[in-house]
Every structure is written in C-alpha cells, then in structure tokens.
Amino acid sequence: MSNEGAKPEESAEAEGGPTSEGSPEPARFDGGRVGASAQGSPTERMRRGELAAALQAPFVRPILRIPLKKVVIWGSILGLLYLLRQFFGVIFLTFVLTYIASTVVGRLEAVISNRKVAVVLLYLFIVGAVVGIGFATIPDAVAGAKNQLEHLRRIEDPKAFLNQKVRAFLDSAPALREWHLLDRLQDPELNAQVVALFKDWQEWGLKLVTFVLQSVWAGVLNVVLALIFSFMLVLDMPRIARSVEALEHSRLRDVYREVAPSVATFFSLLGRAFEAQTVIAIVNTALTCVGAALLGIDKIGFLATIVFVCSFIPIIGVFISTVPICLVALQGGGGLGLVFAVVALVTGIHLVEAYILNPRIYGHHMKLHPLVVLVVLYIAQHTIGFWGLIVAVPVTTYVWRHVIMGEDQYEGEGEGEGEGEGEGEGEPREAAPAP
Q1: Rounded to the nearest 5 degrees, what angle is found at the Cα of 376, between the Cα atoms of 259 and 312?
Q2: Contact status, residue 426 vs residue 412, Cβ threshold 8 Å
Q3: What range defines the domain where residue 243 resides?
Q4: Which pLDDT tens digit goes with each residue over 12-70?
Q5: Mapping DSSP to helix (H, G, I), strand (E, B) and coil, where does residue 59 land?
C-alpha cells in the first residue's frame, strides 16, 4: 500500500507536476517524450553543464544579446534601399517637396479651410516658380555648356592659347612683367610640361561639361516626376497616414513598431535640415549671381544652376561650383586676374556661409568633424552616387546622435521634464559632441 501511494507522487514529479512540497517543476522533454530517465543521467547532466559554461563565455554572451528580429528587419530595409539606389534622385526630391509642402499646407489651413484647395494652390505656385526658373536658367545653362564644349574642342594649339592668356594677364598687371613669364614659357622642357598639363585639363573640362549637360536633363526629369509624386502624396496625406498607422494591427505590426518611430525621427531631422539648407543655397546663389554680374561674367543662369545644386554638398560643393565659374571667366577673355577675382568672390561667399548662415540657420544640429564629413562623402559617392553626397551628412548625424548616442533632442518631446531644474518645457537637452 505504501508503494502504491508513492507512485502518483513519482509520476507527478516525472511529468513536471507539483512536487510533494507543492512547488511546480517545469517538465523537460527529449524528442517529444518525457525524459525522466535521461534527466537523471550523469552524461546528460555533464553535457548540459558544458553547454551552460560555453554560453557564459565572454565572446558568446554579446552574440546571444543580439536581437535577431531587429537585425532582420533593418537589414531588409537597408537592402531594399540599396536596390532602389538608381531611383534615389526621384525619391529624395519627392521627400523634400512633400515635407516642405506639408509644412506649408498645415499653415495655410489656418486661412483656407479646404485642404485640397490649399494643396492645389500651393502646387500651382510651385509649378509656376519651377517653370519660370527653368526658362530663365536651363536654356542659358545648356547654351553655356555647349559653348564651353565647343571652345575647348577648338583649342588646337595650347602653347599659343597660353601665351595669349599670359600676355593678357601681364597687360592687366604691369608689375609682373619683370618676372619674364613669356620668356620662361619658351623653354622647351617647361613648354612640354605646360602643354601636357593643359591637355589633361582640357580633357577633364570636356568630361565635366558633358557630365553637366547629362545632369541637367536628368535633373529636369527628376523634378517633374518628384512634383507629380509629391502632389499626389500631399493631396491624400490624411488617408495615407491612416493606412500606414493601420499596419500596427496587421501582420506587419512587428516591422511597424520597430521601424515607425526611428523613421519618423529621421525624416523629421532630414526634412528640417534640408529646409535650412535650401535657404542657404538660395542665399549662396543670389550672392554668387550678384558678384558674377559685378565682375562682368557671362552665363549667369548656367552658373547659378551649378551653384544652387552644389550648395547642398558640404565642404567640396564650393570647390565643385568654383571650377565652372573660373572656366567661364578664363574663356571670356578676362585673363588670370579675373580668375583670381572669382576665387576671392567664392571665398568670401563661403566665409559668409560658414560663419553667418550655417550657425544661424543650421544651429548645432549638423556639426561634424571635417575629416568625418570627407570620409562619409567619399563612401556615399561611391556607393550611392551623386545623391549620396547630398544626404550623407544628415544621415551620419542621425546615426551618430540618435542610434549610437541615443539622443532625443526634438522640441515638444518630454514636455514638463526638467521643471524645477531651470529647464523649459520641451527644451532639448545638450547634444553630445559629434565625431
């Protein structure tokens, strides 16, 4: 009788049921069956001990902490973006136009109650402005590029061309005649080196002008497509937003909950950055056009287009935009003196941008070390292309401050935090220094 009474207790222990002390013990299975005999096997216990010890190794524990679901989700999104890199120009322009238009429409709704009417009026204004700017700049830009192309191709005697330009420069600066530059150019060895260098510059200039012509056509097409896409998005934005929010209750809820907050933060940072950069680009273009007109340089529409686009490229954009201006100045017969004046003009505008516009408009959100900027631009240009130069710095800023440092420094977040500590509502905390 005593043995029979013990059987239920042993059976309960084997099946993971409550023990005699009343504490439940989880069942352990081996191949889908109760492994009571194997559970007590010394060999099995030794193997489990070795496995537990291996999992506690210092190099294994960080791997086990990696959230595989997050890795798969973000890896898939980054892979998709890489596959769509050929369409990045249209995607980027659509985003910028949509962000700016949504902001303006939100303000117009205080005056115009009908949202669709406000959207239509805004895009009529945008299309009119784009068409007007296009007619004012694109024909001049294309004609200027073609003239430069033909002029470079017509230079058959680099030595005579250089002698002519040096003579014109010496006439504008008589104090330099004592240097005997023309006599030095008659040296055969020096003359051969100068001619070879000039031919290299000529070949590079031909490639640059051809690239500009191709870029102008591609840019016009991208702008037209971006206008169409952004208009459709802004016009139907409330319904699109509700559809996206509905993903939280769909089979993609894990993807939505993981991606949505980060994407919203990133788009907010990127949108505000390019709102500020657009203002800076407009000011840079206006100052360059005024300076070029005062110096008597032609093809201002062509140059304005290049300066405006290059204003979105940090650091190296100023050098890229300077080359066409110097070529136009040199081709126009102004000589090296006019080229030096152009360099001084661009330097002055760059100083205005660096010390007045950027601190006031950009604030402290996009400050990165120049070396980091150059490395990021180099990598982005080789992986994404031209558009990588434009978005590289905002993306790097977001990754550093919000992914690595984990900062949330947006107005309106954390309302009420810091009260009693001398901080205002929603005031962003101090940013960590960028690399």
Answers
A1: 85
A2: yes
A3: 67-404
A4: 444 444 444 444 444 444 444 444 444 557 777 777 776 666 666 666 666 666 677 77
A5: coil
